[in-house]
């Protein structure tokens, strides 16, 4: 008889502990819901969606206008080569006798990939720090 009553008391104790845990989870969920509501109010998803649609239409318009301008203007590559040829001719006539001996062109050293990777890593870290700061600002 004492063993059964002891088992019942343990069962009741576990149920009470479970009820307290459920109550604690309920409080956490309520605070999370409040935070989510505040976040949704701050973000204003419908307004952001409308802004994104306007931006996409403007970009499409800009792309179409850019294509029209490219179609109207002649090819830049051919024009640049012709222009450079004319400039070389004029400079050749002006500097007939005063031409300096051309110096050999030194090869440009390629940037070290390690430095580039370090810079990219630093940029990524800086970006992550900015995002963390923004997240902290939103939380507070």
From TrEMBL:
Protein's organism: Photinus pyralis (Common eastern firefly)
Protein name: Charged multivesicular body protein 3
Bias kind Basic and acidic residues: ranges: 131-140
Family membership: Belongs to the SNF7 family.
Region (Disordered): 96-140
PANTHER family: CHARGED MULTIVESICULAR BODY PROTEIN (PTHR10476)
Cleavable signal peptide: none
Bias (Acidic residues): 115-126
Record-linked Pfam families: Snf7
GO BP terms: vacuolar transport
InterPro entries hit by this protein: Snf7_fam
């Amino acid at each position: 008889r004492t063993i059964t009553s002891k088992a019942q008391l343990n069962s009741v104790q576990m149920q009470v502990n479970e009820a307290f845990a459920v109550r604690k989870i309920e409080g956490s969920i309520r605070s999370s819901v409040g935070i989510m509501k505040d976040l949704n109010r701050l973000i204003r998803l419908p307004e952001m969606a409308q802004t994104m649609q306007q931006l996409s239409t403007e970009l499409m318009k800009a792309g179409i206008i850019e294509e029209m301008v490219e179609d109207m203007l002649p090819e830049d590559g051919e024009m640049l080569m012709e222009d450079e040829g004319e400039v070389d001719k004029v400079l050749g006539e002006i500097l007939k006798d005063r031409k300096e001996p051309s110096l050999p062109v030194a090869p440009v050293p390629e940037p070290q990939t390690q430095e580039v990777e370090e810079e990219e890593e630093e940029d990524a870290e800086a970006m992550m720090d900015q995002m963390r700061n923004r997240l902290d600002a939103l939380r507070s």
